[in-house]
Amino acid sequence: MSAGRRAADTAYEAVRQMILSGEVSPGDRLGESELAETLGLSRTPVREALQRLGADGLVEVLPHRGARVVAWTPADLTEIFELRSLLEPYAAARAARVGLDASALAELRGLCADMEEAAARKDMAEVARLNSRFHAVVIDASGNSRLPGMLASVMHAPLILGTFHRYEPATMARSMGHHREVVDAIAARDPEWAASVMRSHVRAAAATLKEDQ
After folding, report:
1. Cβ-count burial of 114 within 10 angstroms (0-12 exposed, 13-18 middle, 19+ buried)?
2. What integer pLDDT is reported at residue 205 of this predicted model?
3. Enclosing domain of residue 56
4. Which of 49, 106, 141, 205 lies deepest, with the highest CB count within 10 Å?
5. Cα 95 to the chain's mean position, in Å?
6. Can you give the CATH number for the domain in which 40 is found?
7. Are 107 and 142 part of one and the same domain?
């Protein structure tokens, strides 16, 4: 790997973590010069990192004005969760229909356990990271190669908005239970069950966000 690629990867991971941890908030400007100075890098890898984060849906790149963390209106969030409530249940159903091997199921169950432990420690940034991984594994397990790209731009909203910081203990417990039940449904190869639980999970997350709008 070239030095330039390593620097761009370093910048990408650093800025991504700043966003997902809440160090920078929705709508905050991300200046190339300031980030380069903070990270001890040149502007070129920072610029590349911002472009990649733009493709991920985490950053809005503004022509001749730098970049800023994506922000959403209530109408945007409604559209985002409508799409998720359509596509993610489909992904879960396909994963159940296709069937996962023992190692993939073990990974999902391990992610569930790790999320529960992080929630108990009140490490919401880690909960968010693990939750993102859990949903990505289910989407990949669907076997539909187009789904990851279709969902990429709408999967980060709850992470950037700090959804898990808003959860009451009962809400968090319900979310963790949904994860476990999705895995059970996939393991049972029951598409309707998997889709139903995933739909409930996404709608519950949407309802929590709407309460704070």
Report:
1. middle
2. 87
3. 3-69
4. 49
5. 19
6. 1.10.10.10
7. yes
pLDDT of residue 213: 55
Please tell me whether the overall predicted TM-score, pTM, comes out greater than 0.85 for this model: no
- In the prediction, which pLDDT does 106 show? 97
Locate 75 and state its tokens.
């109408």
- Does one domain contain both 138 and 194? yes
For the chain, the domain total comes to 2
Asked if 58 and 111 sit in the same domain, the reply is: no
Q: How far apart, in whole angstroms, are the C-alpha atoms of residue 59 and residue 74? A: 18
Which stretches in the chain have pLDDT values below 50?
none
102 with 22, same domain: the answer is no
pLDDT value, residue 63: 77
Name the one residue in this structure whose structure tokens are 């940034």. Answer: 125
3-state secondary structure at position 99: coil
In sequence order, what are the beta bridge partners of 66? 62
The pLDDT, as a whole number, for residue 159 is 63
Of 43, 69, 95, the position where a domain reaches its end is 69
